[in-house]
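Exercise 7. Given the encoded structure of a 218-residue chain, write a plausible sequence.
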C-alpha cells in the first residue's frame, strides 16, 4: 500500500461508515465536511453513494440532492469563517495545515477578477472547488446568489461523480482511473465556457452595455 492509499484509507472508512449508518443524512454530513475546506474527498463520497443507488438502496436523484445540499451547508460554514476572520484566519488555519494559503489566494484572485459566478464554475474543479467560500465570505458577497451558484455547481459535480459510481458498480473505488479522463473533460468544458464568457463580456463593453461581471458582488 502506497503513501496515498495509507492516507485515504481512514477517510474512506469514515465515509463508508457514516453513509452506511445515516443514509442520505450521511451524504449530507460528509459533503458538508468536504465543503467546509476539510479534506474529505467527494471523489469517494459520491461514487460510493452512486454505487448504493445502483443496488437500489438509494435513489440517484436524492443522492445528488443530498450531495449538493451538503456542499451548500459546508460553504456557509466557510463563508461565515471568511466573513469573521478573512485572510488572517486563513493564514492561521494554513499553519495548522487545515487549508492551504495558496488555494485561498487563488480563489480570492478568481473572485476579484471574474465576480461571483466563479462560485459556480470552481465547483466543477477538483481540489480548489471548496476554497472559494472563504474569500467570498471575507468579501461579504451576497449570500443568496452565492448559495444559488454553489448549489448549481455542486449539483452538477455530485451528479457526475454519483453516475461514475453507478457505472462502475461494485468497482466504484476505481474512481481515480476514471477521474484522470474526467478531469480533462471538465477542464476542456470550462475553458470553452470561459472563452464564451470573455466574448460576451468584451462585446458588452464595446456596446456600452454593462456585463455585470466586474466585481465580487456579481
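Solution.
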Amino acid at each position: 500500500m502506497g503513501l496515498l492509499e495509507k492516507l485515504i484509507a481512514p477517510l474512506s472508512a469514515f465515509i463508508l461508515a457514516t453513509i452506511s449508518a445515516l443514509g442520505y443524512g450521511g451524504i449530507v454530513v460528509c459533503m458538508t465536511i468536504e465543503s467546509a475546506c476539510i479534506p474529505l474527498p467527494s471523489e469517494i463520497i459520491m461514487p460510493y453513494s452512486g454505487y448504493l443507488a445502483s443496488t437500489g438502496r438509494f435513489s440517484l436523484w436524492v443522492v445528488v440532492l443530498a450531495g449538493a445540499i451538503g456542499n451548500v451547508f459546508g460553504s456557509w460554514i466557510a463563508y461565515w469563517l471568511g466573513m469573521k476572520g478573512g485572510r488572517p484566519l486563513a493564514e492561521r488555519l494554513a499553519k495548522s495545515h487545515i487549508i492551504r494559503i495558496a488555494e485561498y489566494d487563488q480563489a480570492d484572485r478568481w473572485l476579484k477578477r471574474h465576480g461571483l459566478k466563479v462560485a459556480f464554475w470552481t465547483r466543477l474543479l477538483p481540489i480548489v472547488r471548496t476554497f472559494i467560500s472563504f474569500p467570498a465570505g471575507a468579501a461579504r458577497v451576497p449570500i443568496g446568489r452565492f448559495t444559488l451558484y454553489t448549489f448549481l455547481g455542486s449539483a452538477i459535480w455530485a451528479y457526475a461523480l454519483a453516475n461514475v459510481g453507478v457505472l462502475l458498480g461494485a468497482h466504484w473505488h476505481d474512481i481515480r482511473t476514471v477521474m484522470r479522463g474526467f478531469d480533462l473533460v471538465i477542464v476542456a468544458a470550462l475553458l470553452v465556457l470561459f472563452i464564451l464568457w470573455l466574448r460576451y463580456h468584451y462585446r458588452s463593453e464595446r456596446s456600452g452595455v454593462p456585463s455585470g461581471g466586474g466585481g465580487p458582488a456579481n
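Remark. Residues 80 and 190 are 28 Å apart (CA to CA). Students should compare their own answers with the one above.
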